[in-house]
């Protein structure tokens, strides 16, 4: 497509948008609403996945050591744990460090532990981090058989629930995204079809004077592309403002819930929406024109 022809096509597209202002506004608004709903779904899903990953990273196996282990035996046990399939990290926690951590957790009630240092009932341990909840059971079972291990502690039910939740969330999110994209394409295609139907006489006249199918298609394709971009831009701004407000509310009221920062998430989302809006607008026009150009 030459530059002169491209300018002609763009001019025709802009003229068509201006000439059918009300229908063009309706098409762009439909694109904006559809893509905004899709953006909300995406933001919820990516934050749900982020929350699941955060919880996953907090899952660990605590391996308690037998009393009287020497430093060489302890290092040998640590290497054995690191060699287990599914283990990503092993950190030694002495009984003194464990008591200090317990004091911090108790906060204002830490005075309940006064005088316990001399007879510290806590044990030395290794904090074992796995590559995901699917590995927790097998790592715990394997750790029990290693020499020098007194006991192994982990939350079996929590690990299994998190595994099921994250699997369902990711699979369900993928299905929802596909369904939302198809629904958006359907709605936009039908909206663009109305604008084309209103100009069916114009298309018929162009065909009568000898215009080829692609000569007729290109202005409408660019028209759909521009309307898609306009709607996507509105959806991106609305999604950015909505997400900024939501993140501010989370930080102010439930700051312990991990959420993704506004940037660069909304920037990436905006680029995705603009690409999708342009693609869906152009594709919607192309699909809608088949009825008029197949005669």
Could you please describe the fold and organization of this structure?
With 295 residues, the chain is of the alpha+beta class. It folds into 2 domains: 3-55 and 162-293, no CATH class; 60-154, Alpha-Beta Plaits (2-Layer Sandwich), CATH 3.30.70.3040. It is 72% helix and 8% strand. The protein has 9 helices and 4 strands, in the order ααβαβαβαβαααα. The protein has helices spanning 3-19, 21-58, 71-82, 95-106, 136-144, 156-197, 200-208, 213-253, 262-293; strands at residues 60-65, 87-93, 125-130, 149-153. The protein has a 4-stranded antiparallel beta sheet with strand order 2-3-1-4. The longest helix is centred in the middle third of the chain and has 42 residues, at 156-197. It is elongated and about 100 Å long. It starts with a helix and ends with a helix.
Summed up, what is this model?
With 295 residues, this protein is of the alpha+beta class. Helix content is 72%, strand content 8%. The protein has two domains: 3-55 and 162-293, no CATH class; 60-154, Alpha-Beta Plaits (2-Layer Sandwich).
Output mean pLDDT.
80
Contiguous runs where pLDDT drops below 50 for at least 5 residues: none
Our Rg estimate from Cα atoms comes to: 30 Å
Beta percentage is 5-15%
Largest sheet report: 4 strands, antiparallel
The number of helices is: 9
CA(first)-CA(last) distance: 25 Å
Extended strand count:
4
Q: Provide the number of structural domains.
A: 2
What order do the strands of the largest sheet run in, or round the barrel if closed?
A: 2-3-1-4
Indicate the overall shape.
Answer: elongated
User: Could you give the order of the helices and strands?
Assistant: HHEHEHEHEHHHH
Could you estimate the helical fraction of the residues in percent?
Answer: over 70%
Helix/strand class:
alpha+beta
